[in-house]
Design brief:
The structure is a single chain. By secondary structure, the protein is of the alpha/beta class. It is 44% helix and 19% strand. The strands form two sheets. It has a five-stranded mixed β-sheet, sandwiched between helices. The protein has a five-stranded mixed β-sheet with strand order 8-7-6-9-10, sandwiched between helices. Strand 4, helix 3 and strand 5 form a beta-alpha-beta unit. The longest helix is centred in the last third of the chain and has 30 residues. The structure holds 5'-O-[(R)-(carboxyoxy)(hydroxy)phosphoryl]adenosine (KG4) and zinc ion. Zinc ion (ZN) binds next to helix 4.
Length: 334
C-alpha cells in the first residue's frame, strides 16, 4: 500500500511517501527556522504563509524522491491536529484536494500519534503495551499505548511544554532559536551542578509535569546576575537541561513502576536531546525496562511518522470525509 502523508501542524512543512506504513520511500522536511528565528519563537501567521508557499513543491519533491506518481498512490494522510490552526489548514486542504482529485481514501491523524509512530519506523519497533513520553515544542505528555490506536493519558504538562521551556530559556540567555539544540551544545561546556533550579512537583504525587517554575527561576537568575559571562551562560544551560531531564525521567520511571509496563518510547523534538536519551536509557537498564528512541530526524516533526500512523488507520478501514476539518486542540486520549 503506497501512501502520501502531509504534516504542517507547526513550523515544518513535510511530505512523505511510505510503502505499507513502514518503508520510508521519501520524507521531505522544509524547516521554517529562518522565518521564526528573529522572533525567538514560532509566529503563527508567518508559519501558515510559509506553508502555503512551499506545500506544493514539498509534495512534488516527496513524490520525485520516492519515484512515485500521484495515480500510483493508494491513499492520503494528513495531520488533523493538534497544532496551529492556520498551519494545519494548509496541509488539510492540500490532502483533501489530492484525495478528491484522485478518488483515493483520506484519513486525518493526531500529530501526537504520529510522534509515537516514529518508533515503528526503526529496526526495533515496540510491542504493545508500551508507555510513550512525547516531548516537543507544543506538548509534553506521557501515554499508555495499550493496543494499536488505543491510548490512555497518564500525565501531561500543566503549563509549558518541555521544548517551549528550552526555547524560552535560550531566548533569555540570548542563544537563538530553536533553543533545544543550542542549549544542548552550550551545556556541554557547563557544569550541571553549578546552579540549583527547583524540580517542580517532585514532592507531590501527581503524574503531571510543569516547566514554568524553572523557566521563571532562570529568568530571575539572569536578571540578578546580568551581564552573564560565557562560562555562566554555559553553567545555566547545563543546570537547566539537567533539571528538565531529571523531571522527565523521574516521572517516566514512576509510571513504569506503577503500571508495570516494561517498554518505553521516547519521542518528539526534545527526544533529540542527547543527555535525555542517555539518562532514560540508563534508567531502563537499571529498572529493567526497554527503551525505544527513534533517531533524532524522526523525533522532530516530519511527515513519515504521520504517514505511518495514518496507513495503519487506512488499513483498519478508517476514512475521513471531505468535510474533515483541522482541530487545533485535538486530543489523543482522555
Ligand atoms: O516535535 P517538534 O519538532 O515540534 C513540535 O511538535 O513542537 O519539537 C520542536 C521542539 C523545539 O522546542 C526544540 O527546541 C526542541 O524540540 N528540540 C530540542 C532538541 N532538538 C529539538 N530540545 C532539546 N534538545 C534538543 N537536542
Ligand atoms: Zn511535533
Amino acid at each position: 500500500m503506497l501512501v502520501l502523508g502531509i504534516e504542517s501542524s507547526c513550523d515544518e512543512t513535510s511530505a512523505a511517501v511510505l510503502a505499507d506504513g513502514r518503508r520510508v520511500l521519501s520524507n521531505v522536511v522544509a524547516s521554517q527556522d529562518d522565518v521564526h528565528a528573529p522572533y525567538g519563537g514560532v509566529v503563527p501567521e508567518l508559519a501558515s504563509r510559509r506553508h502555503l508557499e512551499v506545500i506544493v513543491p514539498v509534495v512534488e519533491r516527496a513524490l520525485a524522491e520516492a519515484g512515485v506518481r500521484l495515480p500510483d498512490l493508494d491513499g492520503f494522510v494528513v495531520t488533523q491536529g493538534p497544532g496551529l490552526i492556520g498551519s494545519l489548514l494548509v496541509g488539510c486542504s492540500m490532502a483533501k484536494a489530492l484525495a478528491y482529485a484522485h478518488g483515493k481514501p483520506l484519513v486525518g491523524v493526531n500529530h501526537l500519534e504520529g510522534h509515537i509512530y516514529a518508533s515503528f519506523l526503526t529496526g526495533d519497533p515496540p510491542e504493545h503495551p508500551f508507555l510513550a513520553l512525547v516531548v516537543s515544542g507544543g506538548h509534553t505528555a506521557l501515554y499508555h499505548a495499550r493496543a494499536p490506536q488505543r491510548y490512555a493519558l497518564i500525565g501531561q504538562t500543566r503549563d509549558d511544554a518541555a521544548g517551549e521551556a528550552f526555547d524560552k530559556v535560550a531566548k533569555l540567555l540570548r542563544l537563538g532559536f530553536p533553543g533545544g539544540p543550542i542549549i544542548q551544545k552550550v551545556a556541554e561546556r557547563g557544569d550541571p551542578r553549578a546552579v540549583v533550579f527547583p524540580l517542580a512537583q517532585m514532592t507531590d504525587h501527581s503524574p503531571d509535569f510543569s516547566f514554568s517554575g524553572i523557566k521563571t527561576s532562570v529568568s530571575l537568575f539572569v536578571k540578578r546576575h546580568a551581564p552573564l559571562s560565557e562560562a555562566t551562560v554555559a553553567d545555566v544551560a547545563a543546570s537547566f537541561q539537567g533539571a528538565v531531564v531529571k523531571m522527565l525521567v523521574r516521572k517516566t520511571v514512576k509510571a513504569v513502576i506503577q503500571t508495570g509496563v516494561k517498554r518505553v518510547v521516547l519521542t518528539g523534538g526534545v527526544a533529540a536531546n542527547g543527555p535525555l536519551r542517555t539518562a532514560l536509557a540508563a534508567e531502563g537498564s537499571e529498572h529493567g525496562f526497554k527503551v525505544h528512541i527513534p533517531p533524532a530526524r524522526l523525533c522532530t516533526d516530519n511527515a513519515a511518522m504521520v504517514t505511518a500512523a495514518g496507513t495503519d488507520r487506512l488499513l483498519a478501514g478508517e476514512r475521513a470525509g471531505l468535510d474533515m476539518n483541522a482541530i487545533a486542540d485535538l486530543r489523543l486520549a482522555a
